[in-house]
Hints:
The chain has helices at 19-28, 30-42, 49-63, 73-86, 90-112. Helix content is 66%, strand content 0%.
Amino acid sequence: MRANTKTAQRVTIPRFETPQAEAEWFDNQKGPLSADMRRRLQAGEGKTLAEALAQSAAKEKARLKPVTIRMLPGDLALVRRLALEKGLPYQTYIKVLLREALVRQTRVSRAKT
Length: 113
């Protein structure tokens, strides 16, 4: 059997200026990316999608600050119902609504100045 004399090259993904530049880079790197992925999986370095998502969620959670708010029972019931219709946990839905309101308010404030 012939020994593999190639040294394993890790592929480093750069930062891109545009989505088009990113797409072109990935198109041009299919071979090296596939080889790198195979090497990592054989070496046991690969992660399942569930592991990668859990790691990402843990990083995001570490950035978040817990808060407590008091809400009217009717408002809370409405938020829970709407969140259920959207298939989201109600706390996540409150975060989405708050974020959307902040973005909207920021736009309005900028337009006035």
